[in-house]
Request: fold
Amino acid sequence: MASPTPPLSRPSAQGASNPGLRPARTAALAACADAFLILLFAAIGRDAHQRGEIITGVLATAWPFLVGAALAWLVLRLWHDPLRLWPAGVAVWLGTVGVGMILRAVTGQTVVLPFIIVALLSLGVFLLGYRLAVAGVLRLRSRRQQA
Reply:
């Protein structure tokens, strides 16, 4: 007698469709990717405006956004499924920009509408983009395994 087949479920970004990565490792990699992309955003911005102090300058620009991302991770406990576009990706993106801009304003750093727009667009592409790419790869991998 054959055993019943388990019901089909939508694979999680860190679940059965990705057995090589444990949930804790997936969360750590996603957090590192978020931090790296925020630092890259700050580095690109500093380079575009030809400012000196490469490392300290990038860190000075990035820290409010890194705090915003960390708060989003902690408040919403995003380590449970950090690669999902919703809610994890959107929460990190908006938390990064929202808290980042508030902290910049409170600490006397520049907060003007064009910078807010550039930050929203750039960080949206970075923080949502890699999650979309991961979801696409996992979807392709799942289809190949089913075929």
